[in-house]
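Narrative summary of target 7.
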Amino acid sequence: MSPEGKRLLNIIILGFAFMFMFTAFQTCGNVEQTVIKSFNSSKFHGSGYTSMSVIYGVFSASNLIAPSVVAVIGPQISMFICGLFYSAYIAVFIYPLTWSFYTASVLVGIAAAVLWTAQGNVLTINSTDTTIGRNSGIFWALLQFSLFFGNLYIYFAWHGKAHISEWDTRRVFISLTVISLVGSFLFFLIRRPEPESVAPEGTEALLQADLGDSSGGSTIPLAQGRSAQALDAFKKAVQLSGTKEMLLLSISIAYTGLELTFYSGVYGTCIGAMNQFGDDAKSLIGLSGIFIGMGEILGGGVFGMLNTRSRFGRNPVVLLGLLTHFVAFFLIFLNIAADAPIAPEQGTDLQAFMIPSVQVALLCSFLLGLGDSCFNTQLLSIVGFMFPQDSAPAFAVFKFIQSISAAVSFFYSNYLLLHWQLLIMVLTGFLGTLTFFTAERVVTAKRHDSDYDSI
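Modeled conformation, tokenized:
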């Protein structure tokens, strides 16, 4: 197999591993608030929104040390260990206790920071300036298949059930735990790419840390080298966070955190709380997730391919994502009751500005996924292109900003009515799109002599 073929295979394996892991985790996040409402136990007093807020809050802080962890133990082992923590979080729901629920939330927050930093590192190592856009699209499309399979299971398992029993919950989460573990072990199939022109020297060093010292030299210099790499990665993350390009991208990155919260945790809860959808309201949570996944997969595949053609840039795709989301937000405002995000287990009988329609709700799910893929594929592409020599610190900053935004959003989701949450996303998305356009022009101006238009 050619070096390029090996790098592409690594990207595909990476995508499948994340697909399995996040089939479990994203399905868990989509239904956990609804599941928690159905618990009738004096031993459990948790909140799905609060748990996700803790996860993303810890995630944001942990991004400061994530590049150092990846530098010391390498991206492959980092992703495997983090996958085990994700599996442990899902397994908590098999026999839920408040203390284990929130403890696992903290641990997953730490693991998420390391996992996504390592993912960005592996993506960049296995890409060139001309393939980073394509590979970002391939990875994103495979990742978003996770929304399809897990939620399809939820739809059939909960179809016609107005109340979720304890057995229903355990059966679902045992299955999800096993699926997550399969994804974790797939990381061992990733191999180091050929050294020639694979990635800049500073980036490849992180992957080499995972493979050990093959020269048989002393372990003391190796340990000292890894410590130096860890400190250097931390310093670079701090430096990159203050660069003009990253500051410009920060608002659009923050927007992806807000809408991530909404489509992954809030919107499914809203649909499940709408009594006017009938006894199938709970199973519609799974169907909504499937339509989100369809939008994500379509966007990841199409926009990844468009990135390889010179006449298409990133700006039109981001603009399409903004317009798609604006249409979705407007229809959700008309279709879903304002108190749906915070409705009790019995649901809400209120009506918004139109007769609630399942078809409109599912259309909005698709549009949410499509718009999200527009933003994320382009952000992954531009960050990977701007910082090829410092990919791990750059993606750590990316996730730091995104996770802070998601943590804040999950926190206020406990209290704010639906229309206020939509307004916050509209304003942030508009500003984020403008600053993304500016960042794109800055990169073009600074690297006008590069092959930038071919990305």
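The mean pLDDT is 80.
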